[in-house]
Specification:
mainly alpha, Serine Threonine Protein Phosphatase 5, Tetratricopeptide repeat, globular
Length: 117
């Protein structure tokens, strides 16, 4: 059985880890928001950088994966876009927006692959 002080320290470590996690999500959200701003101005390479940065901070952030997929698709990096969409869907399989983006991507992706045969 843990001593009372040990139990409190263990709880503080657990809570401290949660705070870092919240900070990471907040920092990742800031990167995603900035990526959206620069993408609206057509600065896709900067947006891609920001969304990769968001994913580095929080690999479980489905919106960052989805946005990255859109940008990679825009830049013609279709294999990378496919992987990013699949990661987004793995994280949030019932997210209607991600599903719609993925379905539209697959239609174009299939056409490109058929034309290259």
């Amino acid at each position: 059985m843990l001593q009372p002080i040990s139990w409190i320290l263990a709880l503080l470590l657990f809570v401290g880890t949660g705070v870092v996690r919240a900070d990471e999500r907040s920092d990742a959200r800031d990167q995603v928001d900035f990526g959206i701003e620069v993408a609206r101005r057509g600065l896709w390479k900067e947006a891609i950088y920001r969304w990769y940065r968001a994913i580095d901070l929080d690999p479980t952030y489905a919106a960052a994966w989805n946005n990255l997929a859109i940008a990679l698709e825009q830049e013609g990096q279709l294999e990378e876009a496919l992987e990013a969409y699949e990661n987004a869907l793995d994280l949030e399989p019932n997210h209607l927006g991600i599903e719609q983006n993925y379905d539209l991507f697959l239609e174009a992706y299939d056409r490109v692959n058929q034309n290259s045969r």
